[in-house]
Every structure is written in structure tokens, then in C-alpha cells.
Write a structure and sequence with these properties.
Layout (H helix, E strand, L loop, with lengths): L6 E3 H8 L3 H10 L5 E2 L5 E4 L2 H15 L3 H32 L2
Antiparallel strand pairs: 1-3, 2-3
Helix pairs in contact: 3-4
Length: 100
């Protein structure tokens, strides 16, 4: 069964993420967020993008990284998270052979 994607309108996303519209525009231009257009041409945002936006805003404020640098940093952090997950899974598989 495929999980259903929760989407939001532009207004819903701004409300949920607490982002000023100019900051949201910069994140989209930098490729941090990638909304898609619905049949009417209005932007639709996946719910998970709220967390990405908040994380990006925190990096921007705390580390004073520009938006393109944040896009790269988020890609690298996502890749690191994926590699850690894969490493845990491989260790579990290996443990089945060595603990037996």
C-alpha cells in the first residue's frame, strides 16, 4: 500500500511554516523547496516541505549561509541520513550471521 501524500495550498503552507512570502520565494528559487502546480496552475506543497523549510530557515539564521549553500547543505544532510540508515540495516543483517 502506497502512503498518501498530504498536500497544501500556498496559503496553508505559509501558515504552517511561518515563512514570509519573500523567504519562501527565495527557497523555491534556490531549489530548497520544489512545489508543483495543480490543474489551475496554483502551487501545491507536500507536507514534508514544512520541515525542510523550517530546517533551511534555521540554517540560514544560525549559520548565515546563503540560500544556494543551504540547498547544498540540505542535500548533503539528506544523503548522510540515508547512508546512516543503510549502515544500520547492513549492521542488522550482519548481526544475524555473526550472532547465530
Amino acid at each position: 500500500m502506497t502512503p498518501q501524500m498530504i498536500e497544501m495550498t500556498l496559503d496553508e503552507f505559509i501558515h504552517a511554516s511561518h515563512l514570509p512570502s519573500d523567504t519562501l520565494r527565495r527557497m523555491i528559487e534556490a531549489g530548497i523547496l520544489d512545489p508543483h502546480a495543480d490543474t489551475a496552475g496554483d502551487w501545491r506543497f507536500e507536507f514534508q516541505m514544512v520541515f525542510t523549510a523550517r530546517r533551511a530557515l534555521r540554517l540560514h539564521r544560525e549559520l548565515e549561509i546563503d540560500w544556494s549553500g543551504i540547498a547544498l547543505a540540505l542535500d548533503l544532510l539528506d544523503e548522510l541520513e540515508q547512508l546512516r540508515y543503510e549502515n544500520r540495516m547492513l549492521r542488522q543483517r550482519l548481526g544475524r550471521f555473526t550472532d547465530g
